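worker-3 :: picked Cupredoxin
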Amino acid sequence: MEKSAFNMLVLVGCVGMFLLLSTQCSAEQHEVGGKQGWDESTDFDTWASGQTFKVGDTLVFKYSPMHSVAELGSEDAYKKCDVGSATNSMSDGNSVVKLTKAGTRYFACGTMGHCGQGMKVKITTVSASSSGSSSSSPSSSNATPTSTSTSGATSFAGSLVFVAVILVLSSLMNILC
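worker-3 :: tokens ->
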């Protein structure tokens, strides 16, 4: 009876860990601008319209030293390209922003004149259970709508490996005890 209770506890633990890890599978990493990245030649309107941004996803801005990323606090600041009122400024060339809640966020290049030339993007995040489309901003040029998912299959496979290891350890405990 003691072994079966232990086995049941291990099984419940494994299922719980699997469910916990599998919720992470839905998060995506969006490379802003797709393959072109955060650059003035990218059409951010086209790029963003092909994406669905969900709570838990991340935005990755990849850019050269001549650019930066300014998060703007309002639609008015976004429309006016008021990068001086940014709520957050990043300039490391590989900036990551986690989308933690549903709503709209605004980003623009902090380099003088770039926002006015269309180097800005409006991101509308939906709850993780929703499947709506994102909104975007006016811009220039064209880009390939792409999103890089780094968590789906990898996290699922990792979850299965974790469960398999726990089950093997549980079996070993039964043999040894």
